[in-house]
Amino acid sequence: MTIPDFFAVAVHKSTEATPTFTPTVPPTAASAPAWDDVRFFLAVARGGSLSAAARALKVEHSTVARRVGALEASLGVRLFDRLPRHWALTRDGAELLAPAERIEHEAMAFARAASAASSVGGKVRISAPPVFASRFLVPELAQRSARWHGIELDLVGESRTANLHRREADISLRFMRPAEPGLAARKLGELAFSLYAAPAWQARPAAQWCFLGYAEPLAEVPHQQQLARLAGTRPFVLRSNDLAALHQACRAGLGLAMLPRFLAQDDPGLVEMPGADGTAPRDIWCVLHPDVRRSPRVRLMADLIAELVADNAAALA
Q1: Per-residue pLDDT averaged across 185-201, rounded?
Q2: Is 121 left (phi over 0), alpha (psi -120 to 50) or beta?
Q3: Which of 273, 233, 281 is nearest to 257 (CA)?
Q4: Would 91 be classed as within a structural domain?
Q5: Domain identity same for 137 and 50
Q6: Structure confidence by residue, pLDDT tens digits, 157-181
Q7: In 243-281, which ranges are E strands?
Q8: Whole domain around residue 152: which residue ranges?
Q9: First CA to last CA across the chain, in angstroms?
Q10: Looking at residue 266, what DSSP letter applies?
Q11: Main-chain phi, psi angles of 214, to 5 degrees
Q12: What stretch of H or E contains 285?
């Protein structure tokens, strides 16, 4: 198959009209579809279905079908076989996947460069672990709101790792050093964990203790591994990937949990329990894409977060 010229030239705006697929000659640059059409093609190719692509792009599945159809009609190429349970790439679609991903890479690089060239005012998206975002970042940033006047913060609490190459966030706060190549990372401090329970557990023999822990894949984090060793053959009565749920279950007296000290040490409904001495702290990392790091507003927020972590080092560790 000959790769359509579209995949080697700049993209242009496409029609939103519902397409009818009719093979044509490859399009010229002037009639080439928009980057958005390629974005929908990639979402279906990666997700394998309209519904998966719709969830990833946060649109209706009918919109996905319409935009992919528009791309096919514009290119004169059938990209997918519409099967009952999924959409499968055709041979032509598979050949166009790599060029489409190169377009995505360049489009994201363009957006990052545009963001870096902009003024201090504007939006900054920060990805952070949910409880760290809600119980630490929000109150600390609120106290310093005058320092980031004119910036609109988009704070995303998520356990997964945001993809900075695809601009899922401008700043990513993580509890482990990034493994992805091409990112700028700075260690901000440490986050300590200890063993906590509701006060009633102090009266129970240690042999009767029950535990609350992370579910997969978070069961592999260091403090959870230490809790598993401490529990031994004693039971886990609840597992969750939600630290807030573990915190509330611990306060309710369901069992013992390894919790961040900043979250639990001043909680009147919890007491620190013996047995978890020497818990290894988690490192707090601030991660940015080098292109976005040049943005004045991103740099301001990254420096401010580093400052507030340093100011609260004793409470966090």
Answers
A1: 95
A2: beta
A3: 273
A4: yes
A5: no
A6: 998 889 888 889 999 999 999 888 8
A7: 256-260, 271-272
A8: 120-188+282-316
A9: 59
A10: T
A11: -75, 150
A12: strand 282-288
Closest to 79 in 3D by CA, of 1, 152, 142: 1
Query: Average of pLDDT values for 272-289?
Result: 86
Residue 147 sits in the same domain as residue 206: no
Sheet of strand 256-260, all strands in order from the earlier edge strand to the far edge: 236-240, 211-214, 256-260, 193-197, 271-272
Q: Are 65 and 50 in contact (CB under 8 A)?
A: yes
User: Does residue 73 have a pLDDT over 50?
Assistant: yes
Same domain (yes/no): 159, 69: no
Residues 100 and 40 grouped into a single domain: yes
Categorize the per-residue pLDDT at 11 as very low, low, confident or very high, splitting at 50, 70 and 90.
very low
In this prediction the pTM is 0.64
Count helices and strands in the chain by DSSP H and E runs: 12, 12
State percent of the chain over pLDDT 70. 86
Number of domains composing the chain: 3
As a residue count, the chain comes to 317
**Does residue 205 fall inside a structural domain?**
yes
pLDDT, the chain, mean: 85
176 and 100 in a common domain: no
**Per residue in 109-160, pLDDT tens?**
777 666 655 556 789 999 999 999 999 999 999 999 999 999 999 999 998 8
Q: What is the CATH number of the domain that holds 96?
A: 1.10.10.10
> Does residue 139 share a domain with residue 110?
no
Domain boundary among 77, 94, 115: 115
Contacts of 203-208 spanning 24+ positions with Cβ under 8 A: 206/275, 207/234
